[in-house]
Structures are given as C-alpha cells and as structure tokens.
C-alpha cells in the first residue's frame, strides 16, 4: 500500500509520500481553512483540491528511502535528496512502506514487524515534513483468504502507526496526501481484470474504514482491459490482468494513475515509435479520466533507462521534457491531470540502488533545469487556478482583478514560450542538419524531431484569446530570449535524430 504525505507547514509546496503500501507525502503553505478536511488533499470532480482550492504539483519517486533511513549514519542521503528536490520545486515524493524478507525487512513474518525499520519510515515522513517535499508512498495473492488477511493486517499496522518522531498517527498526518494499494498490480491468471477488481473493491473498502481523511489510489500502470476493447490496441503489446477503466471506477478509489515506460514496453522499437506511443498513451488516459472516470489522473512513474544501448542524457532530457509538456497542457485545461512523478531521484554514492533510471540532481544540471522549469510552471498555474476559484466563490469578476490578469499573462507566456521554444529548436535543427541541407526536399517531419509538438500548444483555446499572441513585440522578445539561450548552450534536449545535435 502507498501513502501520499504532505510536510513542511511553512513551505508552499506539498510533499507526498507513497508507501506500498506506497506513501505519497506533500508539503503546502500554511493557510487558515476551517473545513472538515482542513490540511488534507482531496478531490473535487476531476481536480485535486487543498483547503478548498485547486492543487497541482510536480514530484518524484524514491523507493529506497525507508531502507536507507534504517541505518542512522545513512539518513543524510534521505535529507540530501529531499533538500535537492525542494530546491528545484518538487512537491510530491513517492516511496515504499513495505519490505518483506532480507536483512532490512519491515515485516519479518506475517504480523511481525521490525521496529528499527519502522523508525526508518518515521524518519522519512518527518524529513518530508521538514523539507517541504510531498511523498507519494503469484495470483493466489488476490484470492487466498489467508493472504488477504495478511495484507489487511499490514495495512492496518501502517495506517494506525504513530510516528515515533512527530507523535502523529499516520492516518491523522496531513503530510500524507494519499495511500496506494499496490505498486503495479498484475494477474496473469485472469486477463479480464475481474480478479484484480474484486481485490481492489475489498481492500479499498477496508482502507477507507480505517482512514476517511486520505485519498486512495490503486497503483496501476494504465493497461486497458475488456471494458473498452477499442482501447486495448493502445496497450504495449500485451495484457496484465488489469483494466484501467473498471479498476478505477471503484467508488472508494479517488484518483487514477498511469506509468509511462516505452523504452521498457517497446524495447524492440525505435525511439520515434516509443515517443509516438507515449503521446497516445498519455492523451488517451487523460480523455478517459476526464470523460469516463470523472476523476483526477497522476502520471505516477516515467523516465528513461541508461541501461539501453542507445541512451544518452540528451535523450533522457528530451523524453522527460515531452512528458512534462503534456502534463502542463492537460493541467492547463483546468483539471484532470494533477501532476507527474519522475522515476527516480537518488543521492550520490547509492550505486547499489541504481536501476538505470536514477537521477542525481547535483550531477545532472540539464535535467535539473528541466525539472525546475516544470515545477515553476505547475506552481504558477496552480496559483492562477486558486485565484480564479476564490473569485468564483466570492462572486468577483476576474476581469477586474489586476493580480489575476498579471498572473494569467505570466501563465500564458509560459505555455507560449514552451511552444515557440520547441518550434525554434526544430527550425534550428533543420538549418544545421547536414542530411537535410544535402538536397533533401522533404520537409522536416516527426521522425527527425524527438518531441516537437508546438502546434498543440500554440492552438490551445485559452492562448487564442490571449492578446499577446498577436503582439509581435511580445513574441519577438520571447524568440530573442530563446535565441540567446540556444547560443549559450542552455538547451539540454536532443533535437534531431538524423544529425544527433
């Protein structure tokens, strides 16, 4: 099971810890709010809300935190990563609250727990609160009554745990944003998804009987099942016994999640095909969450592995930036996608935990810059939506609110700048690429551009109403700024597959 934890009462952002039980933690700025869910992240339709206002975030995964925090002298690594995350504006962290077997097992045997390891988890939650980063903590498993009882006992032990550092029960801690039932559930014995769905219904009801404050999600990768046969063609070539639609329609499930690993799922295909898959995957789930589920969606895992033969940092940056642009565009519609959690952040000197996807922010300036830019974009957009929401509740005309007008201008410029920047990268690539200059008359196409999709950004309905779109001076300033960034080598993303710029 996972948990989302919010910490750092004097910080703007929220840290979500996901425990698997995954824990999601979040840290939010302190505001006076006297509702029955004060301090807890909730859902309202397809939106996340905090203290009655829209809540958006940018976050990360760090599954290893409890394990490392078990050794006191190693806890500095947890602190270091949380501090680095806060420095680039990350507001949600997903980590694990389970470990069975081995020398650092949380659950030594069914019902028997290692208090020393539990205190490591206490430390992770307390550090998340301190640094202002949220943490978003074979088939007989789903049907065997004894195994299911073991799971329920574990869930109860986690939820009712009283933190030995803060003295707050996990189920009463506003540092926690949400619980996750399981990381990437699969059931090869029943491809229909019915076996997993029965388990979800039973366990979701049990969790809610123990904790009505915190949000709950399944932990799904996003594979489609029999509910929508036409969507199954989007699956990456196989089924895993889950059904994105049916499983997330369970009433106790508050929001949906997907993971995005085309480099794993489509390892035999080229990078163009993988990027096209990612676009279809994200936008299909966005539409289904908005129209069918009518629940928020979180992109809970995404990244690119250095274990792939063709890997380089530019390709990783390009992929992360493409996912981020999709998240921002979806959130900019006013709801459904709350944010994304990149997989995964680590501290230096943690080679034994490396899986190829690790990001050490202090050693990855280009990636750190992309993450920081997304955090700023989501924070600005969240603030804009919050002010709009407050004006609606107070019956104010937002057109007369100068602060709101200024913020809307900043928000639109962010989206416009990202679109123009992508277009500019493509044009520069076209002018520099030897093969394109060598006499090929064909236009630059998406097979040569990693993730350039400025059309969707520039044609956003809201942007069409923004006066600066037709303001040549504003556009010239943006383009001039991008030109300077390009000349200074500030663009870390790989643009052209042909010339490998």
From TrEMBL:
Its EC number is 3.2.1.78. GO terms for molecular function: mannan endo-1,4-beta-mannosidase activity. Residues 1-30 form the signal peptide. Gene3D superfamilies: Glycosidases. It catalyses: Random hydrolysis of (1->4)-beta-D-mannosidic linkages in mannans, galactomannans and glucomannans. Residues 39-132, 140-343 form the Glycoside hydrolase family domain. Keywords: Glycosidase, Hydrolase, Signal. PANTHER family: MANNAN ENDO-1,4-BETA-MANNOSIDASE, PTHR31451. Belongs to the glycosyl hydrolase 5 (cellulase A) family. This is mannan endo-1,4-beta-mannosidase. It comes from Lactuca saligna.
């Amino acid at each position: 099971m996972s948990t989302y934890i919010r910490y750092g009462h004097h910080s703007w952002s929220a840290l979500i810890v996901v425990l698997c039980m995954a824990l999601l933690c979040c840290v939010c700025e302190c505001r006076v709010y006297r509702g029955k869910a004060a301090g807890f992240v909730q859902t309202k339709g397809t939106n996340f809300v905090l203290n009655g206002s829209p809540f958006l975030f940018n976050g990360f995964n760090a599954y290893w935190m409890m394990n490392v925090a078990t050794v006191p002298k190693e806890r500095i690594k947890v602190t270091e990563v949380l501090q680095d995350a806060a420095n680039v504006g990350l507001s949600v962290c997903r980590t694990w609250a389970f470990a069975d077997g081995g020398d650092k097992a949380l659950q030594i045997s069914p019902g028997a727990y290692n208090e020393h390891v539990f205190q490591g988890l206490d430390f992770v939650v307390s550090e998340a609160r301190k640094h202002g980063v949220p943490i978003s903590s074979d088939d007989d498993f789903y049907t065997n009554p004894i195994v299911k009882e073991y799971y329920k006992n574990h869930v109860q032990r986690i939820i009712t745990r009283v933190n030995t550092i803060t003295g707050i029960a996990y189920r009463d801690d506003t540092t926690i944003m949400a619980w996750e039932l399981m990381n990437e559930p699969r059931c090869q014995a029943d491809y229909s998804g019915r076996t997993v769905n029965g388990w979800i219904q039973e366990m979701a009801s049990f969790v809610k009987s123990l904790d009505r404050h915190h949000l709950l999600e399944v932990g799904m990768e996003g594979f489609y099942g029999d509910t929508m046969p036409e969507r199954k063609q989007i699956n990456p070539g196989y089924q895993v016994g889950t059904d994105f639609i049916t499983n997330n329609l369970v009433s106790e499930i508050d929001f949906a999640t997907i993971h995005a690993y085309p480099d794993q799922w489509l390892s035999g295909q080229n990078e163009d095909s993988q990027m096209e898959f990612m676009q279809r995957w994200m936008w299909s789930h966005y539409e289904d969450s908005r129209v069918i589920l009518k629940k928020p969606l979180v992109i809970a895992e995404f990244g690119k592995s250095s274990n792939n033969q063709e890997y380089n940092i530019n390709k990783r940056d390009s992929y992360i930036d493409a996912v981020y642009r999709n998240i921002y565009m979806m959130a900019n519609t006013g709801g459904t996608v709350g944010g994304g959690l990149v997989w995964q952040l680590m501290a230096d000197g943690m080679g034994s935990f490396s899986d190829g996807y690790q990001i050490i922010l202090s050693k990855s300036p280009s990636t750190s810059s992309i993450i920081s830019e997304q955090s700023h974009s989501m924070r600005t957009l969240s603030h804009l939506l919050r002010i709009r929401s407050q004006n609606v509740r107070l019956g104010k005309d937002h057109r007369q609110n100068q602060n709101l007008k200024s913020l809307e201008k900043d928000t639109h410029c962010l989206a416009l700048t990202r679109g123009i920047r992508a277009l500019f990268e493509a044009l520069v690539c076209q002018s520099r690429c030897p093969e394109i200059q060598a006499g090929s008359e064909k236009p630059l196409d998406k097979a040569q551009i990693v993730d350039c999709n400025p059309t969707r950004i520039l044609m956003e309905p809201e942007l069409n109403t923004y006066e600066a779109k037709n303001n040549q001076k504003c556009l010239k300033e943006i383009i001039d700024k991008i030109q300077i960034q390009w000349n200074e080598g500030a663009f870390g993303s790989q643009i052209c597959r042909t010339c490998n710029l």
